[in-house]
Amino acid sequence: MFRVNLTESDIEALKEALKEIKNLVTIKLFTSSDRINCFTCSETEKLMRIIRDSSPMIGNKRAIDLEIFEMSRDSDVFKKYEIERVPTIVLLDSSITYLGMPAGEEIKAFIETIIRLSTNDHGLSTTTIKELARLDGRVKIEVIVTPLCPYCPYAALLANMFAYASKVYGNGNVRSVIIEAFENPDIADKYAVSTVPTITVNGRVVFVGLPYEVQLLDAIKKLAI
Fold first, then answer.
1. Range of the domain at 219
2. Which CATH number goes with the domain that contains 140?
3. What distances in angstroms separate CA 201 from CA 160, 164, 215, one per listed residue?
4. For residue 1, what pLDDT is reported?
């Protein structure tokens, strides 16, 4: 199991990166006190608290607002957000969801996603923004990742920015779901994942490896429903 063992140097680097945050970002963490059936819940909560505490102050509040919901205590909130697995992390009103802990290499994309949400720096081309703004159908992008994969953070960030741009400029009909394969082996098995990142659009595997922005856009346009 991946454990959170950040050094003082790691935390200083995290604080330095999070200085770029300009506006408040809310992280919703759905967890469980059942440590047997959720072996990464406590470590995920520890990591989210470190990230929250490392964020700068905006006024009299931390730039990152962390809301923690526990399965046995907050069943109504779980139902509202349709949460079926723990740990689950929700950003941007469920436009961006993490199933499992953003550990190892994945923490890079998670932090970058938070920063970009706060600064409106999606990094996408004008063409992509226009296409997402007029997209009619609904799209669910799933990115299956592992903590040691060096290319997975780039795939996750790209999917997250598609979801973010759709939320801001379009109808919010694109969702990004980042799935940690070791914590969710049934999903990895469902898609016969042997190499990561594996990317699906509306339940269909479209890429094994890191796509270009235009390739992901084309897949979304073809498979939107």
1. 8-223
2. 3.40.30.80
3. 13, 16, 12
4. 58
